[in-house]
Design brief:
The chain has 370 residues and is an alpha/beta fold. The chain folds into two domains: 278 residues, TIM Barrel; 70 residues, no CATH class. The strands form three sheets. An eight-stranded parallel beta sheet has the order 3-11-10-8-7-6-5-4. A three-stranded antiparallel beta sheet has the order 9-13-12, with no helix packed on it. The chain has a two-stranded antiparallel ribbon with strand order 1-2. The longest helix has 21 residues.
Length: 370
């Protein structure tokens, strides 16, 4: 018996796309996951994801035309990723909360994104935004079975289609969270409880569709053993972000990555974002100053998020995240997952994927012996 093949993780199939390894690299915005990281993940068998939000910060004179250069950069990054990983799967993460959501979806689909992953709000009208002739797979992000059912019903009623997969994200994820601040630590919201809820919620729609709607677990997943646990639970795959920041191919600055390496458990905090959502980030001088009520230097390049009421916000979150991505951590902060303190070295994407697959195999073999 070939133990490697027997205990290997199953492939992840989304529509007519199949990733040999059931890992989606989470989209991390403001220049953290672009073509460099996404293509590396896709080449090693996972699904690489480019985050669209403020992707134009790498373009010259971004401050002069942030909207136009963000669109141009998105097209360019998708093209580069697909050229570098011609046989891989490249997705784009697009936040529903973006002011330019509709245009961003259209550009991503026309540029050849294999799939669009969309959260930070319910993507109720996403299918109607895809240009005719594009075979883009659509993957909403939800934080409950109820939200999954609402999206499925809406898409069926108005667009005669269902999600190609659904990502269910728990409160241990990094960045903005789909929960109220007081519910972040509620055990009922842990991903272990949410995955079965979403699997159950999509069953009636799978029956109507005549095929599976894969459920992807996300938020706090760190090891191959974690992946095995969720596959055994019925998930088709996992989405992981934090582990991929600490890779050579990640598009963030080295100072940004080193913040992950230095992080201790007590450095992880929940912040109140000026856009009205809680977020998980590493403590920083910037966050301390905001909590102390100090006025932070700010300017709004353009209203990137629908929910941002700039005149009343204590700081511009876009500028804070841009500063952090560039390594200026005193003038911003770093979003992170709950397990960031467990990251202790920077490795290649290939090494990380090998570690995760091996960890999965070992967990499967242990389980088989019991």
């Amino acid at each position: 018996m070939n133990e490697k093949a027997t205990y290997a993780p199953p492939p992840l199939t989304i529509g007519d796309l199949t990733a040999p390894v059931p890992i989606i690299q989470g989209g991390m915005g403001v220049g953290v996951s672009m073509s460099g990281l996404a293509s590396a993940v896709a080449r090693t068998g996972g699904i690489g994801v480019i985050a669209s939000v403020l992707i134009g910060i790498t373009e010259a004179n971004f401050h002069k035309d942030p909207r136009g250069l963000t669109f141009r950069a998105l097209e360019k990054q998708i093209r580069l990723a697909k050229e570098t990983a011609p046989n891989g799967i490249i997705g784009v993460n697009i936040m529903v909360a973006l002011n330019d959501y509709k245009e961003t979806v259209r550009i991503a689909a026309q540029a050849g994104a294999d799939l669009i992953i969309s959260g930070a709000g319910l993507p109720l009208d996403l299918p109607g935004l895809i240009p005719e002739g594009c075979n883009t797979k659509l993957v909403p992000i939800v934080s409950s079975g109820r939200a999954a059912a609402i999206i499925c019903r809406r898409w069926d009623l108005h667009f005669s289609r269902f999600p190609d997969a659904i990502v269910v994200e728990g409160p241990k994820a990094g960045g903005h969270l789909g929960f109220k601040a007081e519910d972040v630590d509620s055990p009922g919201n842990y991903i272990e409880n949410l995955v079965p809820q979403v699997i159950e919620a999509v069953k009636p729609f799978e029956q109507k569709k005549g095929r599976a709607i894969p459920v992807i677990a996300a938020g706090g997943i760190f090891t191959g053993a974690d992946i095995y646990k969720f596959i055994r639970m019925g998930a088709a795959g996992v989405q992981m972000g934090t582990r991929f920041v600490a890779t050579h191919e990640c598009d963030a600055s080295d100072k940004f990555k080193q913040a992950y390496i230095r992080a201790k458990k007590e450095d992880v905090s929940i912040i109140n974002s000026p856009v009205g959502m809680p977020g998980r980030a590493l403590k920083s001088k910037f966050i301390e100053n905001v909590k102390a009520g100090k006025k932070m230097p700010r300017r709004c390049m353009y209203k990137c998020l629908k929910s941002c009421n700039y005149p009343d916000t204590p700081y511009c979150i876009a500028m804070a995240l841009i500063n952090a991505q560039r390594g200026n951590l005193d003038s911003g902060f770093v979003f992170c997952g709950s397990n960031v303190w467990r990251v202790n070295k920077i490795v290649s994407v290939h090494e990380l994927m090998d570690e995760l697959v091996q960890g999965y195999r070992e967990a499967a073999m242990r389980d088989a012996r019991t």
